[in-house]
From TrEMBL:
The species this protein was found in: Actinoplanes xinjiangensis
Annotated catalysed reactions: Hydrolysis of terminal non-reducing N-acetyl-D-hexosamine residues in N-acetyl-beta-D-hexosaminides
GO molecular function, one term: beta-N-acetylhexosaminidase activity
Sequence similarity: Belongs to the glycosyl hydrolase 20 family.
A cellular component term, taken from the record's GO annotations: membrane
GO biological process terms on file: carbohydrate metabolic process; glycosaminoglycan metabolic process
Pfam families hit by this protein: Glyco_hydro_20 (PF00728), Glyco_hydro_20b (PF02838)
Protein name as it appears in the record: beta-N-acetylhexosaminidase
Main EC class the enzyme belongs to: hydrolase
Amino acid sequence: MRPVPAASFAIIDGGTAVSAPPPLEGVAAHLGLPLAADGAIALALDEALPAEAYRLEITATGVTLAGGSPQGVFWGVQTLRQLGRELPGGVIEDHPRYAYRGAMLDLARHFFTPAQIKAHVDLLVQFKINHLHLHLTDDQGWRLEIPGWPRLTEVSGGPGTGVDGAGPGFLTLGDYADVVAYAADRFVTIVPEIDMPGHVNAVHVAYPELTADGRPVAPRTDAEVGYSSLVAGREETYTFVETVLKTVAGLTPGPYLHIGGDECLSTPPEDYRTFLERVLPIPGRFGKSVIGWHEIAGVDLPEDAVVQYWRIEATDDAVARAAADGRRVIVSPADRTYLDMKYDADTPLGLDWAGHLSVERAYDWDPAERLPGVGEDAILGVEAPLWSETLRSVDDLRYLTFPRLPAVAEVAWSPRDGRDWQSFRERLAAFGPRWTAGGISFHRSPEIDWH
Ligand code: IFG
């Protein structure tokens, strides 16, 4: 044991063991240290704590980490891992501000493989993100196998699909189950999105019979939006939608099904209403709560519906009304959370329709102050979407994600008065060497004095 200040504790590489009761052995495995009954790091459950809360006590002789549930202990493990090998003495008591702390990955514009998605989960949990929203379908590609509708993936998940024709691929039922299980083992809930009634050119390419005139539709590999729509007046539309949502619900242990609803510029308003009134209740029939982008707030919503706010406007009356009616809101304002926004004018990747998103702007805002009428009690949580129109590799994905995802993750986890940009930027600096050592591409933002 190296000589250390009295109150701190040094983890000896490989020589420090962890003790864990059976329900926590899975969590202990994530520490990468041996299990032993007399381990210097003791994991424990403390039912008196809220599920995701934990209490970390570090003394010169060892560490006690108690959580309200295995998930709470797992979040404590992430803090332990962040502290490194020299653990400062003291007690940390911590719990999340919001229950829903999400990241979104757009697999439709550019597909990423199960292995790449799982590697992304490993990085997200280090910042206590507990939901991964997978945008599975859009104009350019359909990325989840649906039994009975094979052309969705054979055609619209096949070669040449994706923006610039560079994002081919799809998840088989087995791939999806594998990703769901991997995420669950790390206390991350997968939130699948089937975007409707807009953003459906990939459906029409695969099944022209679902279009208004039944004529063949050309694949699209550009990045335009708002030009496609399911036909609200045809029964075939609902047969298709019901089969797809039933399949996805059956594959998804999590409580949510996201049905999109955004940018339906080619859906007449009355048709949009008709479509949603028939489709919004379907997830509930399969035991799921429906999530939609905030445009859905214009129609009557199921009691447990969740509205995901994404625009940059200062107010949104429909969302405020939905919140006043008891619907919950996921706050994802593009000008604060869209990781596909450029960092600055020199950023080679990304878009800039919501402005440039610096690390500080991703950090220095408050979800409860973002939308008038959408206060703390209406907010389910925060999510950072990453749209993939300009992504071509995992390095690209990570370059836009890090270091802004940690900023949004802290907005979602920490109490509002506990947040401080100077403190955050100093703590973030320690990740530079770790990401470099791990081969994790990230933006060395000049806002941070990287170690
Ligand atoms: N808006 C579209 C996305 C994507 C995005 C890129 C939403 C909900 C612009 N819809 O954001 O499909 O194109 O920043």
